[in-house]
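Regression test attached.
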Amino acid sequence: MVSVEEVKGIIESVRKERLEERDILINVLHKMQKHFNNFIPPEAVEIVAKECGVPLSKVYEVLTFYTMFSTKPRGKYIIRVCASLPCHVTGGREIVETLKEVLGIDFGETTEDGLFTLEKTSCLGLCGVSPVIMINEDFYGNLTPERVREIIEEIRKKERGEGK
Amino acid sequence: MKPIVVLVSVDSNSVLLGARHFLNYLKDLVKEYNLESTVDVLETGSMGVYMEGVIFTILPDGVHYLVKKTDDVKLILEEHLLKGRKVLSLEIPPERIKKTVEVEKVAEETRIVLQNVGEIDPMNIEEYIARDGYFALAKVLKEMKPEDVIDEIKRSGLRGRGGAGFPTGLKWEFTAKASGDQKYVLCNADEGEPGTFKDRLIMEGDPHSLIEGMIIAGYAVGATKGYIYIRGEYYGSIDIIRKAIEDAYEYGFLGKDILGSGFSFDLSVRLGAGAYVAGEETALIESIEGKPAKPRLKPPYPPTFGLFGKPTVVNNVETFVNVPRIILKGADWFKSFGTESSPGTKVFSLVGNVVKKGIVEVPLGTTVRDLIFKFGGGVEGGKKLKIVQTGGTAGTFIGPDKLDVPLDYDSYQNHGVSLGSGVILVVDETHCAVDLALNAMKFYEHESCGKCTPCREGTKLAVQILERISKGQGRKEDLDLLREIAKAAGETSFCGLGQSIPVPLLSILENFKEEFEAHIGAEGCPVGVCKFEKPKKKKMYSFRRF
């Protein structure tokens, strides 16, 4: 359930960064998405629209334009794979194949257990240690297919441990 | 300062290699061995080069170690710090780091932008001040009129480091002369050009230089508010910049009546959310206003009609960082680096199949060959160099025959080799030109904002055609079709994104024509990268009978 108070609280915490009346929408949405585990529920969008004085349709226009935002629930872990050339030529292709195989999903999909969402991203600016992926806010570099398998297995293990 | 200092690189790249972990471990060990009064462990930015580990530098000895595991940290502490003996097995010969004896002369002379990166703790404003930080701001506020600042920047010949190369002083002058009750200074830190990571390393290694440059710009053009627009994925940079802004407020470099001058300036961070096109200045402005990052029709340009319709300066991170240096040392000093039309230095990102991936700052006018072989150590694994893409995905693909072109703002016009954001992507002989072109066009297709038809549809068509070629189903007329699409998109697209499509596409078609032709009507990809498929038989549709 989304409570009006919690959404207002988030907006209020971002207001500190405000220099002008209408300059915080995207920062608000970032914080909102983090709070609601990787997506922004429709109830929250409505409150944001009202509180920030922006028409609902305009908030959705922003949400659907930017690739980092989602209006649909996503996995607990969002895996962003760099698909740009610097990673592509240093083994990135194999990383993409391995991830698709290990997770059993394609780009834009979420695993059945709700743990992982696989997304393609443009250059993450970590080309010094390419190929690179990002899992939520953590980066992993100098990847090999074996290392990718290990990373996914580690997360799965951790999640199984917590579930017990 | 304590007698011994250990510097540990903690930029994003090093953190991925375990830098935080090693740093904390070393700090614990220092406590455990009661060395706290003699050893200082400090964080610093990137040393500019990445190998398979994290670089520890011990001062004043000037010894560099490559740390790969926690045992290495312990060894350094027990041997070097306790007993004063070098750990030869971990020592990196100085020439493997760019800031070294042999290259030091060059490095010292050319590290203008990166002068503090890898030398100071980015989270500590006092270390920045100790290296003449905010001195330029003080000089500007006490001794110079806004017009003097603009004149100095104009005289220095500084040009925008984001890729377009517009003269910075001129941009500032337009904004200063435009009328408006409120003006803004924006920093474009939406670093999205694939292969570019200089702005990330500058922000993570020396955030205060950027802030100082922006305040000076504010004073020069009469702006009292500024924003740093950082890519949403750049978590490390965002945290460091936010902390630096907080500290600058606390020390009175931001806020009201800065250093008692009467000039006030406020600065805040805004985040991107995954849109390459937001790097286009008017799209960036739209994004700060809380809208989709779609470019505006120009003119009017931001200096007259920018953020919230007010006069606005938009500059790249690297451009702003040059400003305090120019103010302190003068335009003539700055002009002594680089070339006549492109003074100063440029921070290049060396990426791909190159031995030493990382960033390097050299005078403008340095050749592609020097960048790859002198600073980058050549092609990885002793393979042959096949393709270099300069300037990012929106840059040119060139073959080994163009390595001796000096890179500056005119090299695209004169030699067909673009400078762009300073990417040097090295590609070895095991890769295929068609595959690279397909990747580049997929990037454009994904990042096209959809506002105008030539870009939205052109990129889609280009991807379709290149996919067909890479599957071995290319047709004779395909290369001409691609050229036509490139030209149409270049001439008729709404913004710089679509207008730049011909740069990569035409250059790769021109410089690697034979490889493209070898894919058409052939049995397989000459390099063995593309997977050829037999065309699927067309299904015959018929009305179903119920």
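Expected vs. actual: identical. Chain A has a mean pLDDT of 93.
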